[in-house]
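Sequence only, no structure available. Ideas?
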Amino acid sequence: MLTKLLALIKNKHFLSLAGNIIMSGLGMLTTAILYHSLTLSEMGVWVIFQATILFVDTFRSGFLTTAFIKFYAGATPERAAEVVGSTWYIALGITGTLILFNLPVLFFMQYIHDDGYIMFLKYFGLTYILSLPWFIASCVLQGEQRFDRLLYVRFVNQGSFILIVISLLIFHKANLYTVLYAYLASHGITSLYTLVMRWTRINTLGKRNKETTATIFNFGKFSVGTTLSSNMFRLSDVAIINHFLGAAPVAIYNLGQTLMQLVEIPLRSFAATGMPSLSAAYNQNSRSEVIYIMKKYIGLITVVLIPAAIVGVLLADVPIYMMGGGKYVGTEAANVFRLFMTFALLFPADRFFALTLDVIHKPKINFYKVLVMLVANVVFDVLGVVVLKSIYGIVLASVVPTIVAVVVGYVALNQYHKFSFVSIYSLGFSEVKMYWGQMREKLKR
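Reply:
I predicted one. Tokens follow.
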């Protein structure tokens, strides 16, 4: 029994899923504390700051994460050192370039009147610098499939933030800017930790070469579109709500959307473990295996999400009250969550279609797809909020780019290898049935 338990704990899928569950749990706990401590308007400002930071950070993480894993996984030690060194070089270039673009804006701060964007413009550069070492370490650990160490890194980052925030609450010092300083401190602590543990591989910077740097750069300039999508849409949603409805509705919308971590947990976990498998199948020139693996992940996750979506729709008011407190009861937050949980059944197809296109060297399709999705998102967001004059217009509009993504991904992948959309879900039901049967057999023993 102990041997089986240890084998489960060491399993890469378990470690990835456990890491995402723990980190999402801590993240939701932090969000709940902030929602209970800050006013509606203050929370709205914090959401605007966070959404903008995450969006801009995607230019670095989206540019490098997928490209790094693709060229690092399974490489020889010499090649691996070149990939890490070249990734460090590009990351430093992206970081420095964005900070240089940000500096001139600081001289025109008197013309900006939105508190969320003021906070972002003042502290973006420092956030980007403090987070760089632990970002590279996360890429390395994911490429090595060391999800145990990746869990430690995430725990240090999220754990240090939540401990500082709780300390601020205990001493009645919690406000927008002390929370911001806690956020910066957590990035600094995590980067220091990864440097001490030598997981950043910063010593490989001297081993970069032009060829490897160009290879990663050329792949990354298109693969960035895959990662950019979710944060880009969230930023546009938040910006439009803030412009038309104000900061308080931003907080209400974000509360309903925050609970979608329940869906993001399995998606992130299986995407992290699925990419090496997809890459291995592609490198073996097995098109049928690539599509089979993709279909299995999409179908399995979607089938598992169905009961979760039903429970979420029926009991939405309970988590809203627990997360936000009494002041959010009776607002649109619960219905926002219900609508997102319904749309979430399309998320696995969206995520894995995009991931598979990256793996088969079609990142350009993802890039152009995201541009179309963004235009659709903005257009339908504005139409929705103008017609309905509430955040419901934004939520309903959010399903349009998801449908666009699924259709484009399906058509593009069918050109690579033919498969039917229905077969994805029939395979998912078969996989769930098989796993359920195996579980029952183990329980009988």
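The chain is about 85% helix and 0% strand.
Hope that gets you unstuck.
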